[in-house]
Design brief:
Length: 189
Amino acid sequence: MRVQVKGKPVDTSPALESYAEKRLQKLEKYFHRIKVAEVTTSVQRNWHTVEVLVEGDGVYLRAEERCQDMYEAVDLVSKKLEHQVRRFKGKLARKPRDSRDGVRAEEEALTAAEEAAIEAGTEETEEEAMPEIVRQKSFAVKPMAAEEAAEQMELLNHGFFVFLNAQTEQVNVIYRRRDGNYGLIEPSI
């Protein structure tokens, strides 16, 4: 696994980079297909924030922690990611086997997860005038079922997720409702 550490307004020390790499390498014992882990650190008013985005064969996991010590924030975010990976692997293990050719449901789920895309959250601006687009991200939109998109959204810990519906072949948005359920937005033609 490749670990990339970057600091937003501050530079990161080599000691912090090696510490983050060491802590995140522990994720590989749960999920062997991790390709890259992007660690972003920032400091605001003596609060150290660590955000980690882990990608492995199309599966994205995201966690963020804020503490008064950067190393403690790295510890907490790695524990949070470890919990997410275990929960994700548990969901895959509970799915039934495919009777056609003996392929495990886990492999099918990972194949479907490879087709997942990531949609980042937006940042708020405090302007009284017309708001500006301050952040833009692009991602590959690949077909998936709504249930898979909901799982991907939960893994990213986002409130919504944009995906290509495999059944309708249209771009859809799934979002978390206030009552804890999900909503699906489909375009009408």
